[in-house]
Amino acid sequence: MFQVLLLFTVVLVVCVLKQTLFKRSKCRGNIPMAGKTVIITGGNTGIGKATALHLAKRGARVILACRNRNKAQAAITDIQQETGSTDMTYMHLDLASLKSVHCFCEQFLRTGSRLDLLINNAGLVGDGRTDDGFGMEFGVNHLGHFLLTSLLLERLKEAGGGRVVTVSSMAHRWGHIDFEVLAENKHLGTGSFSWQFFRAYCNSKLCNVLFTHELAKRLRGSDVTCYSVHPGIVRTELSRHVSLWQKVFIEPVAQFLFLDPEAGAQTTLHCCLQEGLEPLSGHYFSCCSVQEVAASARDDAVAQKLWEVSEALCGLS
Fold first, then answer.
1. Structural domains in the chain plus CATH codes
2. Pairing with 21, which of 254, 291, 292, 296 sits 20 to 30 Å away (CA)?
C-alpha cells in the first residue's frame, strides 16, 4: 500500500510540475520574415539554434553571433539542411570581451545591412572573469549584451519596427543588485560553489529584465520595441562550466523534466513574430504571454542606475 501511495504521489508531483515550472507553450505569431535580418547571440546551440532554425525557415537572413566558429558553422550546416536556407552567416562575437563586441558591431555596421531583430540569447553559469575583469556571469549575461544593443540601436531604428528580445529567466526573482559591490569588485557575485554560481546567475538575469524595462522607456517615440523572456527550464549547455558532480546531479532530472530547446524557443519566437506586441514593449514574457515580474525588476530608479553604471563600465559615457 505504501509503495502505491508513493508512486501516486510521485506521478502527481510530476504532473503538477509539467503544468507549472515545465509548462509548454506554442508560438502562433506570423509576422513575415522574408528580407529581414536577425542577429542571434549564442545561436549555435540550444534555444538559440532552435530560434535560428525557425526564423531561417521563415525566410529571414540569420546571423549567428558566436564565439566558436566550428560550432557555429556546424549549426549553420544543420539548419541549412533542414530548412533549405542559403542566407545564414557566422560572425565572431565574444561577449566576455568588450573589444570583441565593438569589433562585431563595427564589422556589421560596415556591411550596410538592415537589422530587424536583435536576440540577446547567449548566457552562461560559471565562475571566472571576462577579458575586462568583470565577473563572468555579469559580464557575459548582461554587460556584453548591453553594449551590443547600445551600438546597434540606430541600425534597428533605421529598419523600422525593429525588436530587441533578451532571454532572461524566472531566476531574476531571486536576484539583487548591489552597486557598491559592483563598483568595488566588478561583479555581482562570484565563487566556486554552486550556490554562488546560482546567486550570481540570478543577479545577472535581474539585470536583463531591468535593462529591458529601462530600454523601453528610452525607445519611446521610436518604433523599436523590446521584450525580456523566461524560456522555461530547458535542457541546454548553459551549465557547461559547472563541476562534474553538479552535472551528474542535474542531468538525470533535466532529461526527465526539462523542456527541449524547441519548446524553450517558443516564447522568444512569440516576441519576435507575434503581431501587435508594440504596446507591451518593456514587458516580461513566459509561456508566450505577459507575466508579472518581481518588484525588484520594475524599480525605475534601480533600472536607470543600472543603465548609467553599465554605460560607464562600457565606456559609453
1. 30-314 (3.40.50.720)
2. 296
